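Action item from last meeting closed. Structure (170 res):
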């Protein structure tokens, strides 16, 4: 969406088709295609724009086959969200094991990646999600990924956030 709103340096002429994430299913093949079969899941080999469309016809070299055992939401975002999460954790400040971070939107795919990377690096992660039905299930899923703390927006007040962070640092 950032490309369409002009946040990225690349600004395609409008109207355009959006999307960097996505997964496709092969429906038919040209006679020279040997590496793919109908029904295969594919993503662009290099991050590619214009993935939010119903049909795309491109050379087989553009596509990378994805194992269908990978959950579709991970497969569809693998070229964007893990790298976004890593950059958020590494580009702004040096974080060390024992440090703490807070993120909102923790239920997003990028948020889930932040949790996993932080957990594997020994970084205490505090995660904020929107209030919703089934919040106990959401919290359980995030904790299985490595979330240390999960709060809804209504459970936290901004004025208490700093004291929460300080309590984890000491």
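Sequence:
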């Amino acid at each position: 969406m950032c490309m369409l709103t002009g946040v990225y340096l690349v600004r395609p002429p409008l109207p355009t088709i959006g999307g960097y994430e996505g997964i496709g299913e092969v429906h038919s093949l040209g006679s020279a295609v040997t590496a793919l079969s109908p029904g295969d899941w594919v993503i662009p080999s290099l991050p590619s724009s214009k993935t939010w469309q119903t049909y795309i016809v491109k050379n087989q070299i553009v596509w990378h086959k994805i194992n269908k055992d990978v959950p579709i939401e991970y497969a569809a975002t693998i070229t964007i969200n893990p790298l976004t999460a890593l950059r958020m954790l590494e580009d702004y400040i040096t974080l060390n094991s024992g440090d703490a971070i807070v993120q909102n939107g923790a239920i997003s795919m990028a948020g889930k990646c932040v949790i996993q990377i932080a957990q594997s690096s020994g970084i205490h992660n505090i995660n904020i999600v929107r209030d919703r039905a089934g919040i106990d299930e959401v919290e359980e899923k995030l904790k299985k990924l490595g979330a240390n703390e999960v709060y809804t927006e209504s459970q936290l007040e901004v004025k208490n956030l700093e004291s929460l962070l300080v309590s984890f640092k000491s």
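Note appended to the action item: Residues 109-120 form the longest helix (12 residues).
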